[in-house]
């Protein structure tokens, strides 16, 4: 059973603090149930605690946007093989022709689709170095909301400062989503350890409502801007359907547009 299925059944278990004087949460569980709990924890770890793959020299993901555009433009004008040779010497490591071909094809495709425009995509709002998309009309649970953002090359919002938090609250005050708006914060792996699910950083800034987080029912493991408390943060059941906020970096759009318009 995958993680989403576990969440929907409400049976997913987390790791709780243990030690002298603390109860063992698995003390009275059967062996079958205990094994199921371990399987669920492993599924959660695979998503929330995954180790980023090390980028290898020569692979597409190893290059920043500016370098990709330069290589792609050269390949369009001079051919893939010549571009691979030129930039292998310039970057002092081998740049594979397959990598150059991917850069060229993506460059041509994006150019045709008109993504080379300054600013955030349509319907996204900019603040600082991020673009934000606010969804309230099609509520989703925490996992599906995160998947929606990922399909748009973004993530559930990670709030790092009071300034960012205030900007987001101003945008959503006066709206009427179901329950609230999911943010990318969860303590589903270890009770009380609130982690941003995309970066896997612990939350250094928080804006909890006065009674939160309270982990009501022992399963309120995901955070949202909460309607009843004027959009301060609240912990809630991850299976609840709510609005959500996606975030992507702003810098790439302006930089890519600038590079394109230099042609």
TrEMBL record:
Superkingdom per UniProt? Eukaryota
Record-linked InterPro entries: C-type_lectin-like, C-type_lectin-like/link_sf, C-type_lectin/snaclec_domain, C-type_lectin_CS, CTDL_fold
Which positions are tagged coiled coil? none
Q: Which one Pfam family would you cite for this protein?
A: Lectin_C
PROSITE patterns named among the record's database cross-references:
C_TYPE_LECTIN_1 (PS00615), C_TYPE_LECTIN_2 (PS50041)
Q: Which PANTHER family match?
A: MANNOSE, PHOSPHOLIPASE, LECTIN RECEPTOR RELATED
Record-given protein name: Perlucin
Organism of origin is Magallana gigas
């Amino acid at each position: 059973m995958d993680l989403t299925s576990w969440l929907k059944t409400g049976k997913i278990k987390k790791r709780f603090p243990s030690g002298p004087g603390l109860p063992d949460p698995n003390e009275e569980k059967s062996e079958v149930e205990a094994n199921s709990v371990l399987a669920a924890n492993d599924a959660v770890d695979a998503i929330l605690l995954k180790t980023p793959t090390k980028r290898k020299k020569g692979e597409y993901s190893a290059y920043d946007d500016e370098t990709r555009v330069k290589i792609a433009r050269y390949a369009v004008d001079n051919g893939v093989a010549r571009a691979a040779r030129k930039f292998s010497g310039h970057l002092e490591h081998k740049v594979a022709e397959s990598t150059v071909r991917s850069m060229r094809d993506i460059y041509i495709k994006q150019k045709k689709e008109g993504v080379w425009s300054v600013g955030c995509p349509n319907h996204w709002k900019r603040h600082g170095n991020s673009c934000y998309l606010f969804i309230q009309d099609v509520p989703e649970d925490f996992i599906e909301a995160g998947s929606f953002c990922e399909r748009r090359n973004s993530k559930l919002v990670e709030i790092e400062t009071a300034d960012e938090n205030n900007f987001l609250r101003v945008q959503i005050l006066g709206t009427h989503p179901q329950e609230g708006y999911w943010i990318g914060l969860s303590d589903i792996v270890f009770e009380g350890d609130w982690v941003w699910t995309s970066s896997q950083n612990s939350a250094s800034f928080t804006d909890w409502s006065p009674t939160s987080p309270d982990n009501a029912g022992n399963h309120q493991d995901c955070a949202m801007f909460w309607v009843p408390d004027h959009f301060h943060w609240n912990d809630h059941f991850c299976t609840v359907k709510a609005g959500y906020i996606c975030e992507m970096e702003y810098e790439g759009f302006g930089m890519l547009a600038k590079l394109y318009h230099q042609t």
